[in-house]
Amino acid sequence: MPSESSGPSLRVWVGQLFDAEGEKRLKAGLDGHELLRPDGGTESNLTLASPCEKCRSADVVFGQPVVSDLLDNDRLRWAALSTAGYTRYDNDEVRNHFTDRRIPLTNASGVYDEPCAQHVLAQILAGRRALPESADAAARHKWEYDKVRGITHLLTGTVAIFGYGAIAIGLVQLLAPFNVEIVGVRRRARGDEAIPIIETDDESAVNDLLARADHVVNILPAHPGTTHYFNAERLGLIRPSACYYSIGRGSTTDQQALIAALQAGRLQQAWLDVTDPEPLPASDPLWDAPRCYITPHVAGGLQREDSVLVGHFLANFERLLAGEPLTDRIV
Fold it and tell me: Residues 295, 122: contact at Cβ < 8 Å?
């Protein structure tokens, strides 16, 4: 229950439906406050909620609210997004609104950064140790010792990470024990990064990095400026012995150009956790592209995900009540 010093009861709108454990944790954590739910909540944090009058009259909003509901809410004290990505809220109108009114906007990167980082590391190591080839041989009941052993590699060389946020920071930590050079690419270097950073405007340096990288990791968010960022030209700069990984948003990769590069042998492997569209239709040619391995947007998955997500929100809720800074603040 909230402490006596936590102040008056707040109206808390939650647009997402959680499993039994998550719902129990949410209701216990908000005991003493008014929990508002839309008439039809969403079961996925990737799904945008419908416009909701209750959302426009809440003190706290949690989920994937309609942008106009946030902008039309005169009593809003905090908006918590239930995803790490926040593309639909990443615009000047939203940022200026929240900044001018000093309303914090947070995301859930603290929930999803570690599983996503581990997923990328798993992809990299699976490719280096020829696990897809071993699995294919096993499915055919074949003991292909010489073939598979001859294509295994150590994890070495240069890892280029495009999009330096929480996931990239976690991946850098996981890669620390390996004999690799790591270089990041982001819009603006802050100066506090743990690895060398190239700014996206420095096209010459970016192109040089692509040309010498052994592993190109795409964690770019969806944004008008990142649509098909990895197009035929940039994919063509990557050498044939290198591997490409995409874990941010599917729209950042020109999938037709990727298929062509794989078919022509201009990439060793592609590992994708995100596609465009999602779900990827069964008839999409990307499924049959050679050496292309697809996971169905599960990189952020973890056991008891709903409960962990709710716990992340409630921890910030307690900080709000105590007048403390919120974690994972984006505005």
Answer: no
109-128 helix and 131-139 helix, angle to the nearest 10 degrees: 70
CA distance 121 to 106: 26
Stated pTM of the model: 0.93
Nearest to 244 by CA among 194, 286, 190: 286
> Alpha helix locations (H) across 55-104?
67-71, 92-100
Determine contact, residues 117/174, Cβ cutoff 8 Å: yes
Are 45 and 63 in contact by the 8 Å Cβ rule? The answer is yes
CA distance 13 to 69: 11
Q: Mean pLDDT, 10 residues at a time, over the chain (331 residues)?
A: 59 96 98 94 82 97 96 98 93 97 97 98 98 97 97 98 96 98 97 97 98 98 94 98 97 98 98 97 98 97 97 98 97 96
Q: Is 227 exposed, middle or buried (0-12, 13-18, 19+ CB in 10 A)?
A: middle
CA 221/CA 249 separation, integer angstroms: 6
Phi-psi region of 84 (alpha: psi -120 to 50; beta: other; left: phi over 0): alpha
Cα–Cα dist 55/36, whole Å: 8
Question: For residue 197, which of 161, 158, 248 has the smallest C-alpha distance?
Answer: 161
Q: What does the alpha-carbon distance between residue 13 and residue 33 come to, in Å, rounded to a whole number? A: 11
φ, ψ for residue 232, nearest 5 deg: -60, -40
Rounded CA separation 170/164 (Å): 10
| φ and ψ of 133, to 5 deg | -65, -40
N- to C-terminal Cα distance for the chain? 28
Q: Which of 48, 43, 85, 92 is nearest to 71 (CA)?
A: 92
Distance from C-alpha of 19 to C-alpha of 305, rounded to nearest angstrom: 9
Bridge partner list, 80? 62, 106
Q: Looking at this protein, which amino acid is placed at residue 244?
A: Y
